[in-house]
Design a protein that fits this description.
This protein has 23 helices and 13 strands. It is of the alpha+beta class.
């Protein structure tokens, strides 16, 4: 008989805050919570969205199952007449990577951002109804980070009014685009534009790659899948592809011409729109990846927290003299708390900074519509930097969560290995995290150099305008409780960031060649960029706390998490804080003392804090993280489902086990 006991009920009863209100904070609004909750339940109750066995399916079967699910998603969206908001929640909860992620996540945004109105009117209705399926073909075998170095060419032929798309070398083969390998019918292809014998840099072109009748590649096109990727399940449900062009002709009007165009006569004409707009789809996706990072991390933390409350090891004060009695919940070990609770705090921090980044991006889009490009550099720096910071921390956090679950965390049924394998490439796609931090540092060095000309930094760099104060100020913390002051914390982070930035700027002046200086100092520049991004995350968490937060205990718990996030970072980056004299060694030790008290405050609320994510068991996909905490029967049951357990004596026994055993027996007799 099924066990219906809630093994975590006691933990839930200890919560000191209103969980339902916290769910609203996490979701963003009551409306968002209601819609997401409804769709989560819809997905969890529909067998068509079941995700059992993913880890044991062969690549072909996994791919087929992802195709089936994507088609079913599309069918249900249409049958139920889901709104755009409901649709995105549906895809989110279905939780299976397939071509549709890149179609909706990159192909459509690339057309929206880089195509003219006329082009959008032609292509968007086709894409929006999935009469065509698209991919984003930028990266090549030889070049990913260096977009300017792409080799694919698009040469204008004035005789036929066409572009000739060509892959001149092996290294120019498009490599990685998701959905390209086996599904996409069209691609936005990034290529070097050549007209009238001159090169005009990278531009986007809309190219049909497969027939809409029989799905065969069109003439001149070679296309296929690039092969198995890291981990079982995970990104292997996606057909990342390779694509080569042998002088493929497309009409001139399939160049995406919002930013610049080629006339009928072959003249290249630039508009007043910055060229960087052609990289707009990347800015859009980087912003969404910050939200993905908070989801992926919160998912891992939810599993690790629930399991840590169920798992018991060694004796406890309640034991009798013989050590008999109940063992200690591993969540009560201080080491477990010091590893787990900062991750929990980070999940909340990333959620809030992601929410703010979405606002910043929406604001940019509104400004662009009015031809105001002033915030583009800052939005580029924020999306690049926060994508880098949050994905690196989330990927590390998922792996730490696996370790927090001990041996069982290594089992596929814990859900953690696949979560890690699915999420870790986010550190690479949409821009390698180090390359992106170098972009941030370039922006910051420019901001600092403009101080001399009297330009006042604004937005996320406003603190750089207070350079004199921040270079001189000292931290006033004298006892552990003094750290419970958000202004003190923010100033320590700003002081550390600005001191690292100014040191970089000063060191750069020692090089006659600025490019060489930038390259030599790049490790320091990356560290300074991280410090700046941490200022953003901490300050956005603080801003969140200043909003009208309802519900008993909710604000207090969020404050506790904000302190944990910040003080743990001080602990982790102590070298920076000490070497810049932003804090003293004594203050560092007081921060550690304060952290211990903060962990004690979180402990009774830990389960409720992960319940506030409102994840269904279907979405979590983990026997260790299920809501009822009934871990052991679920683990036991799951093991028996493995294909190896279908037969008692394994296939291969007669060929490969029995002869070995016999030989050992014979050897022993000799
Ligand atoms: C059941 C289990 C399942 C488990 C589920 C787990 C759940 C996990 C959740 C997550 C799953 C989500 C999965 C979603 C699917 C995702 C699919 C992935 C799709 C990936 C797509 C891609 O990767 S597309 C390719 C992306 N490529 C890149 O990002 C390339 C990086 N390189 C660049 O961006 C550039 O080349 C560069 C910026 C690094 C350098 O370029 P360049 O040399 O030209 O630039 P400069 O440095 O000279 O800069 C010039 C100037 O421009 C400014 N600038 C640069 N870029 C931008 C920009 N994008 N926008 C605005 N401005 C820009 C730069 O700052 C300079 O300005 P100056 O003023 O001149 O200084
Ligand atoms: C799962 C997945 C899905 C993807 N989907 C798509 C897609 O749909 N469409 C698409 O076009 N692309 C896609 N990509 C490609 C992705 O965008 C690139 O892999 C990414 O931009 C990194 O580029 P790269 O592979 O060339 O890395 P490289 O640039 O070769 O990086 C290798 C190493 O060099 C370092 N490095 C590189 N340049 C510098 C520098 N200037 N200074 C210091 N260090 C440097 C990096 O930090 C890294 O450590 C995908 C990739 C993955 C893994």
């Amino acid at each position: 008989m099924e066990d219906t006991v809630d093994h975590l009920a006691h933990e839930r009863s200890k919560a000191q805050f209103n969980v339902e209100e916290m769910k609203i904070i996490w979701a963003g609004s009551l409306h968002a919570l209601q819609v997401s909750d409804r769709i989560a339940k819809l997905v969890a109750s529909d067998p068509g969205f079941g995700k059992e066995n993913r880890a044991v399916l062969s690549r072909k079967d996994l791919f087929k199952s992802a195709l089936k699910k994507a088609a079913y998603v599309w069918k249900r969206i249409n049958e139920l007449g889901l709104s755009e908001e409901e649709t995105s929640w549906l895809r989110f909860y279905v939780d299976e990577l397939a071509y549709d992620y890149v179609h909706w996540g990159m192909f459509v945004p690339a057309i929206k951002g880089s195509a003219t109105e006329e082009q959008q009117n032609k292509w968007l209705p086709l894409a929006n109804t999935m009469q065509i399926i698209g991919t984003y073909a930028q990266t090549e075998l030889g070049h990913g980070s260096n977009v300017r170095g792409l080799e694919t060419t698009a040469t204008f032929d004035p005789v036929t009014d066409e572009f000739i798309i060509h892959s001149p070398t092996l290294t120019s083969s498009k490599w990685w685009p998701g959905g390209l390998g086996k599904v996409a019918t069209h691609a936005v292809v990034y290529a070097q534009l050549i007209t009238d014998g001159k090169e005009y840099g990278v531009n986007g072109f809309l190219v049909q790659i497969r027939s809409l009748d029989d799905h065969f590649p069109l003439p001149g096109i070679t296309v296929g899948d690039i092969g198995m990727k890291f981990g079982s399940g995970a990104f292997n449900s996606m057909d990342n592809g390779v694509l080569r062009f042998d002088r493929v002709r497309i009409p001139r009007n399939q160049m995406l011409m919002r930013v610049s165009k080629v006339t009928r006569e072959g003249k290249y004409v630039e508009s007043n729109i910055p060229k960087q707009i052609i990289y707009g789809a990347m800015v859009y996706v980087r912003q969404t990846i910050v939200a993905d990072a908070s989801i992926a991390l919160s998912r891992a933390v939810c599993i690790a927290t629930r399991y840590s409350a169920v798992r018991r090891q060694f004796g406890s004060p309640q034991n009798d003299q013989n050590g008999n009695g109940i063992e200690t919940q591993v969540i009560d070990y201080k080491t477990q708390q010091s590893r787990l609770f900062p991750l929990l705090a980070s999940a909340y921090a990333f959620r809030f900074v992601g929410e703010w980044l979405k606002w910043l991006y929406t604001d940019l889009i509104q400004k662009l519509e009015g031809n105001d490009f002033s915030t583009l550099p800052e939005v580029h720096a924020c999306t690049a930097g926060l994508k880098s910071l949050t994905t690196s921390a989330a990927a590390d956090g998922i792996e730490e969560s696996r370790k927090l679950c001990g041996g069982h965390g290594y089992l596929s049924s814990s859900g953690l290995p696949e979560l890690y394998a699915t999420f870790v490439p986010a550190c690479t796609y949409e821009g390698d995290n180090v390359v992106l931090l170098l972009q941030v540092s370039r922006f910051l060095m420019k901001t600092i150099s403009q101080l001399q000309s009297g330009k006042k930094p604004t937005g996320t760099t406003a603190y750089i305008g207070h350079v004199e104060h921040l270079i001189q100020c000292g931290c006033n913390v004298k006892k552990a409780e003094d750290w419970l002051n958000l202004c003190v914390i923010l100033e320590a982070f700003e002081a550390r960031a600005i001191r690292l930035l100014v040191a970089c700027a000063e060191n750069l002046t020692k090089f006659a060649n600025p490019l060489q200086g930038f390259s030599e100092l790049s490790p320091d520049l990356v560290e300074a960029a991280v410090a700046h991004c941490q200022v953003i995350v901490v300050s956005k968490f603080i801003e969140k706390l200043q909003q009208n937060i309802q519900g008993i205990g909710v604000k207090q718990l969020l404050e506790t998490l904000c302190y944990i996030y910040s003080l743990n970072l001080i602990h982790k980056h102590l070298g920076d804080f000490l070497s810049t004299r932003s804090i003293t060694p004594k203050q560092a030790s007081l921060a550690s003392d304060q952290l211990r008290s903060l962990y004690a405050k979180v402990r009774p609320n830990a389960i409720a804090l992960v319940d506030a994510f409102n994840y269904t068991d279907h979405f979590l996909g983990s026997v260790l993280g299920s809501y009822d905490g009934n871990v052991y029967p679920k683990l036991y049951e799951e093991a028996w489902k493995d294909p190896l357990n279908e037969s008692v004596v394994p296939d291969g026994y007669h060929e490969n086990i029995r002869p070995v055993l016999k030989q050992q027996l014979q050897n022993a007799r000799l």
